[in-house]
Write a structure and sequence with these properties.
single chain, about 170 residues, alpha/beta
Length: about 170
């Protein structure tokens, strides 16, 4: 199974919390399309209007801190983002992202060496990040094959349904 992702970078700083990923005023819906329309609007009013399929969110430390809502990774994934790369993730966001099938990777220096709009390529199988714009490669820990399979199935619910034949 080859999980090669490629898109342009949207860059954010440290401590991007779930309230700016998807503001609480939109939590009256769980419709992914509606959530995507408001993704990141309190931190970047242009994100939802200008993000393209397969784009990449790059961030600093503690991405996804705050409330433990699944709405945040759902909004990111539904907006078309193929992966989030950060120095670190809040623990609950990390797990929620895996559960809904949003790939995420941690790397300590990638964010510092990446600029907005850089073309990014990620090989999830090998754990290799490549900034195509600068030509620099970065090694990171790949998820175990079981987690990669769960992500490729679209998350835990789809994985379970497929496993049970439902």
């Amino acid at each position: 199974m080859n999980h090669l992702l490629r898109g342009n970078a949207w860059k954010y700083g440290d401590n991007v919390d779930t309230d700016v990923i998807i503001p609480a005023r939109y939590l009256n819906t769980s419709d992914p399309t509606e959530l995507a329309r408001h993704c990141m609007e309190d931190i970047d009013e242009n994100f939802a209007k200008k993000v393209h399929p397969n784009d990449v969110v790059v961030a600093g430390e503690n991405f996804g801190c705050g409330s433990s809502r699944e709405h945040a990774p759902i909004a990111i994934k539904a907006s078309g983002v193929s992966i989030v790369i950060a120095k670190s993730f809040a623990r609950i966001f990390f797990r929620n992202a895996i559960n809904i099938g949003l790939p995420i990777l941690e790397h300590p220096t990638f964010t510092d060496e990446c600029s907005i709009g850089d073309e990014i390529e990620v090989d999830l199988d090998k754990g290799i990040l490549r900034n195509v714009t600068t030509g620099k490669d970065y090694a990171c820990s790949a998820f175990p094959k079981e987690i990669q399979h769960l992500i490729s199935q679209g998350g835990l619910i789809n994985y379970t349904k497929n496993k049970l034949g439902v």
